[in-house]
């Protein structure tokens, strides 16, 4: 493609609000522009890279026999009411109404829609297992969408779902997906780890996150120096947990609603309900210097605030006048320093949920709690971590080696869902004996647009992006230093024609710009191999330079195709 006519509006500077390297560099390289917070336009270069990433993902999904389809982004509320998530998903859910005032949402993920499709179209064990996937725009009204493509409110995801008659085939598909993910991120040149992510209340089901190692990541990983043990030490967000509190669980047999006067302390509530404090789901348990600090919260999660009703060890909590926990002094295990609970709220893990068969939760109405509630059956806890899991320097739980901490960006997530959705939505098949049974399910996501940004986070220097060739928008950046010079122009045109005919993706800088500008732009855009047609053109020679290694030299134009990566 000829650069003269291309839409690549490079910038020398961008505003200070772009904090992440990927955000800054992609703006500067003329790859993305923000339309609204967390909503971006992909300009031609970014779109090429996005499609490269998509293609790698698609090939690896197809290779393990997953079938591609495309589900609607606009989902009727009814389906999400069936699963319970219309109420529980929380403020990230983008809801809307049509002209008849029917309720809809823009899908942040598609378990409901795919489960609905499969329950209608697949009724026999003979069709199972089946894995389906799509590459589609997702919508999540994220609280702080300030990191460019790393956290969009509209973003591109590959989401796959598998349906099974038995646990064994789920285990197999999960393993296939896990390996496909490893191949995908390896092909894209990323330094990543697959880490164990504790699923707590999901019922002991297995899940792994794929993390790109990067200082700018939001997650903290515990990595063993001696074996391949790797785990995420973080966290459910407060929002996720609270929005998850049983919405309509009273129509489940055994669940009871109990009225509890508003001003109760944790002791009073638990005594009244005949439960132990740990069984309260909306409680936070930190371990500070080996001592538990239990905080019962009255959460106002819209306002992103956590208010305390009762603290077991008040000395370790610094409270504001309005009872808001300002910070927990000391260092709750697993966190680097004192934790401020008001902002950001990322610190929360509900220790009490782990392994718990029944819990006490808020009834989503004033002055009432629900008892005999089963986590995962009656409400969803998306992510869960035990805050005591690890501290830097701890012994590795697998081999006894030493754990070190590292930061990571979550680019993929594979999850054994079990029957969470099929049971809630009455999605069944007929087994070999002709008996109706709920599908056993798995789900598998990759943030395609986040992957693009994660690559830039990992692959850049002070001059710009350094694309790994698997994700580069073009493989060769051909620069005619002075297109007005007849020798240079002729040789550059010849090379452009020849390389293009050989199927090599070439960006041809044929602009009338100073050489310095062209080279600066070339470093910024980060295409793997630069070929410069300059003064030596009259001898039929060109210069080459690899963006990553900086290795450079000159050679005769005839030798060129042999030197390509
Ligand atoms: P995070 O913890 O970063 O909020 P998540 O756990 O909510 O991500 P999943 O529900 O597991 O995300 O979605 C699957 C994948 O989609 C994630 O692994 C990530 O790569 C990507 N993803 C999630 N949220 C966003 C977002 N706001 N912008 C871009 N990619 C995202
Ligand atoms: Mg999220
Ligand atoms: Mg996550
Ligand atoms: Mg996730």
From TrEMBL:
This is Proline--tRNA ligase. One of its GO terms (biological process) is prolyl-tRNA aminoacylation. Its EC number is 6.1.1.15. Consists of three domains: the N-terminal catalytic domain, the editing domain and the C-terminal anticodon-binding domain. It comes from Melghirimyces profundicolus. It is found in: Cytoplasm. InterPro entries: aa-tRNA-synt_IIb, aa-tRNA-synth_II, aa-tRNA-synth_II/BPL/LPL, Anticodon-bd, Anticodon-bd_dom_sf, Pro-tRNA-ligase_IIa, Pro-tRNA-synth_IIa_bac-type, Pro-tRNA-Synthase_IIa_type1. CDD domains: ProRS-INS, ProRS_anticodon_short, ProRS_core_prok. GO terms for cellular component: cytosol. Catalyzes the attachment of proline to tRNA(Pro) in a two-step reaction: proline is first activated by ATP to form Pro-AMP and then transferred to the acceptor end of tRNA(Pro). As ProRS can inadvertently accommodate and process non-cognate amino acids such as alanine and cysteine, to avoid such errors it has two additional distinct editing activities against alanine. One activity is designated as 'pretransfer' editing and involves the tRNA(Pro)-independent hydrolysis of activated Ala-AMP. NCBIfam families: PRK09194.1, proS_fam_II. Belongs to the class-II aminoacyl-tRNA synthetase family. ProS type 1 subfamily. Residues 38-468 form the Aminoacyl-transfer RNA synthetases class-II family profile domain. The keyword Repeat does not apply. The keyword Endoplasmic reticulum does not apply. HAMAP family: Pro_tRNA_synth_type1. Its main location: cytoplasm. Keywords: Aminoacyl-tRNA synthetase, ATP-binding, Cytoplasm, Ligase, Nucleotide-binding, Protein biosynthesis.
């Amino acid at each position: 493609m000829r650069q003269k006519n291309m839409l690549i509006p490079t910038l020398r500077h961008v505003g200070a609000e772009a904090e992440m390297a990927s955000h800054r560099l992609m703006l500067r390289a003329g790859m993305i522009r923000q339309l609204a917070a967390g909503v971006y336009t992909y300009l031609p270069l970014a779109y090429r890279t996005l499609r490269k990433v998509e293609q790698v993902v698609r090939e690896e999904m197809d290779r393990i026999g997953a079938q591609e389809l495309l589900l609607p982004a606009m989902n009727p509320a009814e389906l999400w009411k069936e699963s319970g998530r219309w109420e529980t998903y929380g403020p990230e859910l983008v809801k809307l109404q049509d002209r008849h005032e029917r309720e809809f949402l823009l899908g942040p993920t598609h378990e409901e829609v795919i489960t609905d499709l499969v329950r209608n179209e697949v009724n026999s064990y003979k069709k199972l297992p089946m894995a389906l996937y799509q590459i589609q725009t997702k919508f999540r009204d994220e609280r702080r969408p300030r990191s460019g493509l790393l956290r969009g409110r509209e973003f591109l995801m590959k989401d796959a779902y598998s349906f099974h008659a038995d646990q064994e085939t789920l285990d197999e598909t999960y393993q296939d997906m896990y390996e496909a993910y490893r191949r995908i991120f390896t092909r894209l040149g990323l330094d990543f780890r697959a880490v164990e992510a504790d699923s707590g209340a999901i019922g002991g089901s297995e899940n792994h996150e794929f993390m790109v190692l990067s200082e700018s990541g939001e997650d903290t990983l515990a990595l063993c120096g001696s074996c391949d043990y790797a785990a995420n030490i973080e966290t459910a967000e407060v929002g996720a947990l609270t929005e998850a509190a049983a919405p309509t669980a009273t129509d489940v047999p055994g669940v009871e609603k109990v009225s509890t006067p508003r001003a109760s302390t944790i002791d009073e509530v638990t005594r009244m309900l005949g439960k132990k404090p740990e069984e309260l789901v909306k409680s936070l348990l930190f371990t500070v210097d080996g001592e538990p600090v239990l905080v019962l919260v009255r959460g106002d999660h819209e306002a992103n605030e956590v208010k305390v009703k009762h603290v077991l060890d008040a000395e370790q909590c610094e409270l504001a006048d309005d009872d808001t926990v300002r910070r927990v002094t000391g260092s709750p295990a697993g966190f680097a320093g004192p934790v401020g609970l008001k902002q950001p709220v990322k610190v929360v893990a509900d220790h009490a949920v782990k392994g718990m068969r029944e819990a006490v939760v808020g009834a989503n109405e004033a002055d009432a709690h629900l008892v005999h509630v089963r986590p995962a059956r009656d409400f969803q806890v998306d992510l869960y971590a035990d805050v005591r899991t690890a501290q830097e320097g701890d012994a590795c739980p697998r081999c006894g080696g030493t754990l070190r901490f590292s930061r990571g960006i979550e680019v993929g997530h594979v999850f054994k869902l079990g029957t969470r959705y099929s049971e809630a939505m009455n999605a069944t098949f007929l087994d070999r004996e002709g008996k109706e049974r709920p599908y056993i399910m798995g789900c598998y996501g990759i943030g395609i647009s986040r992957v693009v940004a994660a690559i830039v986070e990992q692959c850049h220097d002070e001059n710009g992006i350094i694309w790994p060739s698997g994700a580069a928008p073009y493989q060769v950046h051909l620069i005619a230093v002075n297109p007005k010079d007849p020798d240079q122009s002729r040789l550059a045109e010849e090379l452009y024609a020849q390389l293009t005919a050989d199927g090599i993706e070439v960006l041809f800088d044929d602009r009338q710009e100073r050489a310095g500008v062209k080279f600066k732009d070339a470093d910024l855009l980060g295409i793997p191999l630069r070929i410069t047609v300059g003064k030596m053109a009259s001898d039929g020679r060109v210069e080459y330079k690899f963006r990553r290694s900086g290795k450079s030299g000159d050679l005769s134009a005839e030798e060129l195709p042999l030197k390509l990566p």
